[in-house]
Amino acid sequence: MGSIRHILLFLFIGCSTISVWGQKELRRGKMAKPQSNLHQVYLDSANVYRQSDIERSIDYITNSIAVLGKQADKKSLSESLVALGEVYQYHNQYDLAITNYIDALEAYKSTRTTLLLAEAYIQNKQFSEAETVLLPLLKIEGLVPYQKVRLNESLGDAYRGLDQVEKALAFFEEGLIVAKKNQITPKLADLNSKIADTYAQDDKLVEAGAYYNSSLQLTEDLEPKRAVQEKEKVADFYNQKNLYGAEIELRKKSLSELKTLPKGKTAKREARDELDSITPQRINYKIANAYIAQDKYDEAIPYLKESIETADSENDLVVQKDATRKLSEVFEYKGDYPKAFETYRSYVSLVDTLYVRKEQEIARAARFNREISMRQNRISGLEQERELSQSKYDLALTEQQLIQESNKRQRWIIYSLIFGMILLGLAAFFFYRSNQQQKLANNLLALKSLRSQMNPHFIFNALNSVNNYIAKSDERSANRFLSEFSTLMRSVLENSEEDFIPLAKELEQLELYVKLEHSRFPDKFDYQLNVDKKVDVSAFEIPPMLLQPYIENAIWHGLRYKEDKGRLTIDVRPKGSTSIEIVITDDGIGRKKSGQLKTENQKKQKSKGMGNIKKRIAILNDMYKNKVDVSISDLTTDGSGTKVIFVLRKD
In residue terms, where are the TPR repeats (predicted)? Predict the structure, then answer.
């Protein structure tokens, strides 16, 4: 680890420079502060920008290391590495945080750094490593009370993560004793809350409830945002116990207290990946859910509407989408189908908007990853140049000093070559691993983007079917169609984030979709779904929404234009011991004639849809080793009809 520390030191010196102002002052000999003071100034500046600007914060930490020079003070170097670890930890880069904390401990051991390293391990779900780091601290005498509380709290967190409930409770309670003795009030609330969490994890709800009540009372004396956070946590516990009345009462108190807090100060951020932030729109949504759980739909509706309005004003699309969907379901439960349908259309629109935003976020994440990758490649290149320059210098110096000691010189040359080969091998290994990880990340981003394009396309095509009945004023058929369509949509949206779903579930969705289309065009085609008895559908998985576009094309572009009644057949049959064949055939007008009837816009839309499917299959096959094959051909020699064959393989 000592060599790692020196590499890190020179890496930072090589990859960045002191600010322009600092360089000018150094050259002029007019630096107003000693080196140690300047080092602290840079660390203070890094701390200011730690939350808001990660790149600027890292630059200040880099400068703090640069001003130390090659013979850096161990304690000062450790302080810089700890600051760097805290930046990465705040931005959820736990692996990088752990690396820097370890290097900081290598440079200078301290209890504070050890506690930070343990917290990073816990946040990274490395509970055994956290236990290993923390246990030696129990033997240290003279720890300040606050550090004793943190030590016991972190050990409790580690053992709770390891499902060792009794040990976790023992350390939490020991920390509680120290906090009470030394009147560390904030930790009293935190530890009571964590003890309650542990009891709840062990299904001891009575004990959990008692400690949650204590934590609620203790947070009343703390800052308001901490009190609101604890109320919401306890309300979630009441929800798990089905104590909806107590849950609603507590959440209403949270709503009233939120109004007294400054905007943007509603949630304590223990971790930046805490998505369930405490906001009025989310609390209103949870209150509505509690009423719905009691079948009190009329009481739930105002809270859902308030949640939607607040989320709209705060541009919180996720909560707005969820609340709108729930409101549609409430109207459906009440039998108010027009309002249910109208609200569901708003939900669909929000889903589409959310998908667009997700695509933008994915694009931004990809750009950020590329920038980080470029920085890392540049740092690696500078480090290799520094090492090469250092090797040349050492070799020249060795040749001058060892002219008469040829044997010793030869040994040094051999050692240098071996060292260089090891460095090159390590560099090649890490470069390969980085490329593989980047490739996997890019595949996941691309796959998520393609799925987000498929689902809105399917939803809007299906809504055309609903509109057809409404246009015909066939209320009964429209209600039936809408009910079946809602069932299909719920299933589709639930599976939209999965790479693969069970084949049985895909076939159920497929049969429901074909049934809906057949109800629209009963005079255009009949259909049949045949599953060979030899096929164990539970043993296979298939990408969701993969078969539907081909069946949609068969109905809309093949069978619909046929003069007489056509036939659509879906056959699932075995192919060898580890594969099955899914064959979709129709005796429609065929691909060539269908293409002649299409408008330019229809051709463009089809091309885009089929292109998305091909990209999905290509990415999935790359990730899962050629699991799906697709081929399309004419059914007859005269070009009429179409046959699509899917070959699906087991894992």
Answer: 78-111, 281-314
Of 511, 504, 517, 529, nearest to 558 (Cα)?
A: 517
Mean pLDDT score of the chain:
78
Q: Quick one: average pLDDT of 366-378? A: 57
Closest CA to 440 of 368, 369, 543, 545: 369
Give residue for tokens 């901490």. 226
pLDDT per residue as tens digits for the range 494-506? 776 677 788 888 8
C-alpha 349/C-alpha 321 separation (Å) is 9
Task: Domain of residue 468: give its range.
Answer: 456-649
Residue 482 belongs to some domain of the structure = yes
Neighbour tally for 499: CB within 10 Å? 17
Question: What DSSP string runs through 598-609?
Answer: --HHHHHHHHHH
Report the alpha-carbon angle 596-599-601, nearest 5. 135
590-627 per-position pLDDT tens digit: 888 887 776 654 555 555 566 777 777 777 777 767 67
Position 51, amino acid:
Q
Q: How far apart are CA 395 and CA 389, in angstroms?
A: 10
How many domains would you assign to the chain? 1
Give the closest residue to 633 by CA, choosing from 575, 576, 550, 559: 550
DSSP conformation letters of 514-526:
HHHHHHH-TTTEE
In a domain, residue 320? The reply is no
User: What are the b/e assignments for 218-245, b being 16+ CB within 10 Å?
Assistant: bbeebebbbbbbbbbbbbebbbeeebbe
- pLDDT confidence of residue 15: 40
- Residue 447 inside a domain? The answer is no
End-to-end distance of the chain based on CA atoms, in angstroms?
A: 41
Per this entry, what is the length of the chain? 651
Closest by CA to 245, choosing from 294, 212, 201, 196, is 294
DSSP codes joined into one string, 251-294: HHHHHHHHTTSPTT-SS--SSTT--S---HHHHHHHHHHHHHHT
Determine the pLDDT at residue 570: 94
Domain-embedded: residue 69: no
